[in-house]
Specification:
Length: 159
């Protein structure tokens, strides 16, 4: 049972480690950097890297008092993460509650692993790591793997 759980956890978040590090291997002309939006700036202000959100943000709202936020992407967003082709989807609206080092009540981000879709329900910053919550299960990965914001499939930079 422990082995199955460990294999599940490894498979669930393996897509996070290699895709972003492999982006740095492409040339600048091949991979234009997306513009930094207000939502990405707020992630930084709360202690998170910008790569937790895709580059295609259309609108962002934040209640400074409660921490409740909504990110509108203008449509559902699908990202195929190389090299293993893991699929991550973002709903056209991602919602949650943000506080310093913690995103809770997250709704709108799912990953496909082990032939099933899994909703990411929370993210915590812990030193140089991020802790992803999928229900009661948590997995830790280096925050530096999320330094880049990816474009949704079929969308490209405007430059």
């Amino acid at each position: 049972m422990i082995m199955k759980k460990s294999l599940f956890l490894s498979s669930l978040f393996l897509f996070v480690i290699l895709p972003l590090s492999s982006q740095t291997q492409t040339s600048e002309s091949e991979n234009a950097r997306p513009p930094l939006t207000r939502a990405h700036t707020e992630l930084i202000n709360y202690g998170f890297p910008i790569g937790l959100l895709p580059a295609s943000i259309k609108k962002y709202t934040l209640n400074q008092t409660s921490g409740e936020f909504a990110v509108d992407l203008g449509g559902a967003c699908k990202i195929t993460l190389p090299p293993d082709n893991y699929l991550a989807t973002y709903s056209k609206r991602v919602r949650g509650k943000i506080d310093q080092g913690k995103i809770a009540e997250l709704d709108g981000i799912r990953v496909r692993a082990m032939f099933k879709w899994w909703s990411i329900t929370g993210i915590r910053s812990s030193g140089d790591n991020l802790v992803f919550e999928v229900g009661m299960v948590t997995v830790k990965y280096p925050a530096k793997n999320f330094d880049e914001s990816l474009f949704c499939e079929g969308q490209h930079s405007s430059s």
